[in-house]
Design brief:
Layout (H helix, E strand, L loop, with lengths): L5 H20 L2 H17 L10 H23 L12 H6 L7 H20 L2 H12 L4 H8 L3 H21 L1 H4 L6
């Protein structure tokens, strides 16, 4: 970690954290608020940086925990759970670990990871590459369009088709079928 300070980390990971906040909140203003809270925690915990080997993972954990804490406060303030914020991305929230995962959780997550990876490997190269750029590398649509030398509309279309194809392949696979939502 030598030579790394808050400023260089911010410059390197600011866009990644913003996109993660945006995916969690699905709202530009809330994403900016969440991102501000995340960076405040990073600054407050600057001394912890010395022992961090994987900065991106450390920042992601801070972001997810901050999001979960904000969500819980919002739910506590609500009189009924039905009054949850409309922008909440529940499927992503379900992936946020709450305490230590159980052995069953770990096995299920491992099963899902293997199934999705095998289905991704079956996708046509152009769709697989687009999905990996967007979901794994966290590139923006503009960046993907530039990398692949196509229009943003083409990138969106490829992502849509890739997700549809993955869903179809998983529904046809008895092992994977239970993990796919009908919606």
């Amino acid at each position: 970690m030598a030579g790394r300070n808050i400023e260089t980390i911010y410059e390197e990971y600011e866009r990644f954290i913003y996109h993660l906040c945006l995916k969690l909140t699905r709202n530009k203003d809330e994403a900016e608020d969440l991102m501000q809270d995340v960076w405040l925690k990073v600054v407050r915990n600057e001394k912890s940086l010395e022992g961090v080997d994987h900065v991106k993972a450390w920042l992601t954990t801070i972001c997810m925990n901050t999001f979960r804490d904000r969500y819980r406060k919002t739910v506590r303030r609500s009189q009924h759970v039905m009054e949850q914020p409309e922008t909440l991305d529940v499927p992503i929230l379900d992936l946020v670990p709450c305490g230590e995962p159980t052995a069953d959780d770990l096995l299920e997550r491992d099963d899902i990871r293997h199934i999705v990876q095998s289905k991704l490997d079956e996708l046509d190269g152009i769709y697989r590459k687009t999905v990996l750029y967007f979901y794994v590398n966290q590139y923006s649509l503009n960046e993907i369009a530039e990398l692949m030398k196509v229009s943003i509309g083409t990138v969106k279309s490829r992502l849509f088709r890739a997700k549809q194809r993955l869903k179809e392949m998983m529904l046809l696979d008895e092992q994977a079928e239970g993990y796919v939502t009908a919606g």
